[in-house]
Amino acid sequence: DITANRIRFLGQGAFNYTLTDTPNGDITSGTEFTITFSATDKAAMMLRFNKDGSSSTDGTTYNIGLLEDWNAGAATPVVIADLFGNPVTVSGVKSTNANLASLTTTAGTYTPAFAQGTISYSVNVPFTTSSITLTPTIAESHATLELNFNGAGYNTITSAVATSALTLVDGLNTIQVRVTAEDLAVTKVYTLNVTKLQAASIGDYVWLDHNQNSVQDAGEPPVAGATVSLTGTDIFGGSVSLSTTTNASGIYSFTNLNPSTGYTVSISGYPARYIREDQKGLDIARNTGIRAAGYDIIAFTDDDAEVDQYWLRAIGKAFTDTKVMAVSGFVAPASLDTKAQQDFEFTYGGMGHGFYPKSFSSETHKPTRLLWAGSLGVGVNMAFRKEVFDALGGFDISLDAGTATRGGGDIEMLFRTVSGNRLLH
Predict the structure, then answer these.
(1) Which CATH class, in words, describes the domain spanning 100-196?
(2) CB under 8 Å to 254, separation ≥6 — which residues?
(3) CB neighbours (10 Å) of residue 234?
């Protein structure tokens, strides 16, 4: 007889396993013997001899070793051990490999990146993505695949072949791919959590922020017709460049956007209208502009003036004082290249009256203090509340070019305003 517990097998993990309770075997010829494994030894052997061929899944070369006294029951016992150089060829082993070699999808990017040993992933897709397909590929050819979409139950699918389109719902969608090894007792489930993102929107309100405090205060009207631009990159790497205009209430909105870590909103193209007045006369044109104006503040300048970039901002800030009805300001020469320009500024006083603010009011002004014609300002740099014209009427067209005075409508309007209100200069 062959003594079974003197036989050991080298397999998976470079581990030598010695049989425990397998019955002794019979010698069938001068070179062969037969043994039948016990249940305990069979289970252990399946772990060691886990792949067909001459080596295990980790590359260990199979070997059978015979310890001393391995045939103690023979008529002529052999006490010499035979431990090495006895290769074993295994067949009929069922694979326990339940891995995927790859798992691809038609939309989104896995987090984390795919790896055989990682079984849980998340994917975000745009709100415009209506469906998704998966292509799972098994790592071992005898394994089988099943798919469960949003809890509807498992259905058989084919390795390396795209699934049918899976219609996504808004929000979370759960896709499970179950791999069953050739050894049916071994399974692995890969889970893919697909989130269909909701459409994002960006909207706000544009108004004339006179005092630049980023808060809409009383008397700061909305801006209609302004151009609003949206630029940036969404979380999927898509470039975004959109534009719209504010409505009559100053409101704008961008809809159906993918989320982003940072869009940029810019406002430009504040609306302007050109109104032609065919009748000659500066004050006639001024009155036409007043009638067409749609906002609370009306500012005036001349066609040959160079307006400072912060001109309107300064005017708006001045009108944050609700008592102020009109504003005029400093007028500097654009150049002093000619003698006429120099004489006007240095001999006749010019239009600059210093850099310090002055306030004029009929209530505080002393009658003995005379004001010359341009003391309150001139038309090239002045602004009024619209209610001033509603109460006092427009510019006096009898004071215009071609009349006896040859001008003065701007100065007369300023004096008429300050006679009953306050002027900030």
Answers:
(1) mainly beta
(2) 201, 202, 203, 230, 242, 244
(3) 17
**Superfamily name and number for 282-424:** Spore Coat Polysaccharide Biosynthesis Protein SpsA; Chain A (3.90.550.10)
Low-confidence ranges of the chain (pLDDT < 50): none
**Report field, pTM of the whole predicted structure over 0.70:** no
CA 408 from chain center: how many Å? 58
Per-residue pLDDT reduced to its tens digit, 178-216: 999 998 989 999 999 999 999 999 999 998 876 778 888
In this prediction, residue 168 carries a pLDDT of 97
The 10s digit of each residue's pLDDT in 36-90 is 999 999 989 888 888 889 999 899 999 988 887 777 655 565 556 676 788 999 8
Q: What whole-number distance in Å separates Cα of residue 181 and Cα of residue 204?
A: 57
Q: Is the peptide bond before 357 cis (omega within 30 degrees of 0)?
A: no
**In the chain, where the domains are located:** 4-87, 100-196, 200-268, 282-424
Q: What is the CA radius of gyration of the chain?
A: 47
Backbone angles phi, psi at 251, to 5 degrees: -95, 140
Q: Given this model, what pLDDT does residue 326 score?
A: 93
The pair of structure tokens assigned to 110 is 């896995």
Q: Label the pairing between strands 131-132 and 33-34.
A: unpaired
Domains 100-196 and 282-424 share a fold: no
Cβ-contact 179, 116 below 8 angstroms: no
Calpha distance 95→102 (Å, rounded): 18
In this structure, the dihedral spanned by the alpha carbons of residues 374, 285, 391 and 404, taken in order and rounded to 10 degrees, is 50
DSSP string, 381-403: SEEEEHHHHHHH-S--TTSSTTS
* CA distance linking residue 88 with residue 34, whole number of Å: 14
